[in-house]
Amino acid sequence: MEASVRGSSAWVGRTSGPELSGLRVALVHDWLTGMRGGEKCLEVLCRAFPEATLHTLIHRRGATSPAIEALRIRTSPLQRVPGVFRHYRKLLPLMPLAARTWRTGRVDLVVSLSHCVAKAVRPPTGVPHVCYCFTPMRYAWEGREAYLDGWSDRPVRRALAGLLLDRLRAWDRATVTRVTHFVAISETVRERIARCYGRESRVIQPPVDTEFYTPDGGPRDDFFLCVSALVPYKRIEDAVTACSRSGRRLVVIGAGPERARLERLAGPGVRFLGWQPDAVIRDHYRRCRALLFPGEEDFGIVPVEALACATPVIALGRGGAAETVDAEVGRTYDRPTADGLLEALEVWEAAGRPFDPGLARRRAEALALPIFRNRLLGFLADVLAGQPKGPVPPAPHLPARKPPASGAAGFLGSSPRRRR
């Protein structure tokens, strides 16, 4: 979900601490085209290392926060492709080649934030490379079938696309050797990293601005809310269909290629507002009856923003949302369909809409910006000291899990052995 570029007063200490001061740092991010959840994680590192160089495939000037824009930003040859900001996802086959042009120079630490190719950066010999992984390369792994479904009516192109994704998957797996330490954004992504890459990872959930997203104590309206990009895998169709069938009111904030089709499906009680600034989104969190979250996400920052506003969440019980939402702060459901969502709504309402607003707020506060900053920078300090400590606690209401088996125990290269 793209948000307006807004400064935050939620920072506790702007410096990175004595363990990290004076370091030469290279940051790597897939692309800089808007201020979404990944860029909010990047912003923490940009504030901590204002002298760092930031490498990326493409950069739309002014699209991110001042803290990010202030860094020395180095782009790839894709920056010069005409119309690249509209069509960059179509350049997926060229991205591995473009990533080869990144040169970090003489640095003490490389940190990549990756869901596509950023982790493929080559660090200097002996230099730690920490990858903050949003998910293994989406198109080659979890998003493969959804990508190929777009060619279902063109079998030849689908077959060629399948071959391309096979090669991308092999390339993506091979570049794992360039990463010394993985950090996952959720338990869901930690399990994917183990399955796809054969590597263990630390879980540090992304930050939520709990100073901005707050309850206001006002009355609730009778509408439900979706906040999402309007693309197929977000499954907003399930919410539109469930509310249209049952006569419930629904407000949809977001834009994307699915909007026209969803508007045709929608009943008279469904309103589409397009992209909205953060203040409008917060106002709707505060006033809606509940947030509906029908997609499977790597982490799911929107549900946590809603919890920060003391808003119930009805979410598909898969992916990262299942780590922050349960029956105490809303409801989860198993069937990824409109019927599954509608049944969950009816059961929740029949039970009197059970919800603990204090717990919802505390759950969000456990992921506040200062906490994220301290966890991530603390981990980097431990990496440089050669002895990262035990795992970050999992989501507040989940029991600790045994780390998944890894096919590559310890760090690759000359880094010391990890301790879990």
Alpha-beta content class: alpha/beta
CATH superfamily of the largest domain: Glycogen Phosphorylase B
Largest sheet descriptor = 7 strands, parallel
Termini, distance in Å?
A: 34 Å
Q: Bin the helical content.
A: 25-40%
Number of helices: 14
Domain count: the total is 2
The whole-angstrom Rg is: 21 Å
The order of strands across the largest sheet is 3-2-1-4-5-6-7
Query: Uncertain runs with pLDDT below 50, 5 residues or more?
Result: 1-15, 392-420
By CATH reckoning, the class of the largest domain would read Alpha Beta
CATH topology (level 3) name of the largest domain: Rossmann fold
Count of DSSP strands: 13
**Strand-and-helix sequence, N→C?**
EHEHEHHEEHHEHEEHEHEHEHEEHHH
What is the mean predicted local confidence, pLDDT?
86
Describe what you observe in this structure.
With 420 residues, this protein is of the alpha/beta class. Helices cover 33% and strands 13% of the residues. It folds into 2 domains: 25-207 and 368-385, 3-Layer(aba) Sandwich (Rossmann fold), CATH 3.40.50.2000; 223-365, Glycogen Phosphorylase B (Rossmann fold, 3-Layer(aba) Sandwich). It contains 14 helices and 13 strands. Helix 9 links the parallel strand 9 and strand 10. The longest helix is centred in the middle third of the chain and has 20 residues, at 155-174. It is globular. The chain starts with 24 loop residues before the first strand and ends in a 35-residue tail after the last helix.
